[in-house]
Amino acid sequence: MSGTRASNDRSSHSGGGLKRARSEPGGNKVTVVLGAQWGDEGKGKVVDLLATESDIVCRCQGGNNAGHTVVVDGKEYDFHLFPSGIINPKAISFIGNGVVIHLPGLFEENIFLLWSSTLSIIFSIAVFDFHQAVDGLQEVQRQAQEGKNIGTTKKGIGPTYSSKAARTGLRICDLLSDFDEFSSRFKNLAQQYKSMFPTLEIDIEGQLKKLKGYAEKIRPMVRDGVYFMYEALHGSPKKILVEGANAALLDIDFGTYPFVTSSNCTVGGVCTGLGVPPQHVGDVYGVVKAYTTRVGIGAFPTEQINEIGDLLQSRGHEWGVTTGRKRRCGWLDLVSLKYVHMINGFTALALTKLDILDVLDEIKIGVAYKLGGKRIPYFPANQEILQKVEVEYETMPGWKTDTTGARKWEDLPPKAQNYIRCVENHVGVPGRSFCR
Question: Where is Mg(2+) annotated to bind (predicted)?
Fold first, then answer.
């Protein structure tokens, strides 16, 4: 970052005082890739491109509820726990302590047998099978009581983070330590859930047997993440790439609550999930589709429940990697994007799937929200209010040109360039286009 730093040296004050020490952080910085909408923006594609020049690729938060798809040489890889950059054989792949780990899911991924990289996860909370069962039961309960559910992936992420916050969760370091003590705590946790959900069936001994086997398999791969990251940041020059899961509007604190995930998908999750001090965060890329999609329920101001939405869904092949659910589609929402930029401080935007808009005669962009006929200068936190906003659109002419072969700025037709410039100007962040 550049800019002017104000001096605050008060050592010459008549009453004496302390002279503030100043030192620039040494070592390496991490490059961060984050979703800037409700997920499914194409983070895996951007990570895959940046990973070719990276020495370390990291996943910092979330669980196997996230899904990233990367296609390399015609072969498709679907990742749920591993960072997308794992397919770069020259880079160390690193799963941070902020990721909640479902060990069976880890071994099920199609890349695992080829994997010889580094797991941190020593401080990670484990996702157990009964967490996943409880996730499903809670959704049924919400539907019965409120007539609607959250729309979770039923991967157990919410219940696991609840265990973490309640300080009853079990970490990977517990699993790798005294197994008798781990077993005792596991049984207590299982009984707690059984008391809350009487219909819940848990094969305690069977799960413990499997977990003991998983522990021996992962033991050689696990190391302390804090020391790993410290050495990476302060050792020889390295390019370190961090991949966020989910997206900013699904952040537990800043997203469209309660229809959010259970972790911090914003830039703060990089620091808490990997143990990276803030001064070591370098470039932060916000990945955004040229339109907007959302899986599940919740407010979606620019949604198009019409032929435009159908066209975006069809051309964009919009269905969830993890759930297979059809994604809701709508125009690009710059109000939410600017809000997300306020939180993350993006240094650039990676604009994906621009080519999906190639066939449209005109394209709309949501540039402002109105309540009661008046513009509001903020993104509403309350879902009921967000559902009531009226979107003010700017209409731009379509370029009606195939952009799938575009590889640099000059390859794009002028009207497509104007579309990107419009996004940059409204949000205040330079963009890059990543065609499909």
Answer: 40, 67
Determine contact, residues 225/274, Cβ cutoff 8 Å. Answer: yes
- pLDDT grade, residue 25 (50/70/90)? low
What 3-state class would DSSP assign to 428?
Answer: coil
For residue 14, name the pLDDT band (cuts at 50, 70, 90): very low
Both structure tokens of 34:
């984050």
Contact 247, 263 (CB under 8 A): no
321 assigned ligand-binding residue: yes
In our burial notation (b when 16+ CB lie closer than 10 A, e otherwise), range 89-125 reads: eebbbbbbbbbbbbbbbbeebebeeeeebbbbbbebb
67 annotated to bind ligand: yes
User: CA distances (Å), 421 to each of 332, 425, 429, in order?
Assistant: 14, 6, 10
CB atoms within 10 A of CB 187: 14
Q: Is 40 annotated as a binding residue?
A: yes
- Residues with catalytic roles: 40, 68, 164
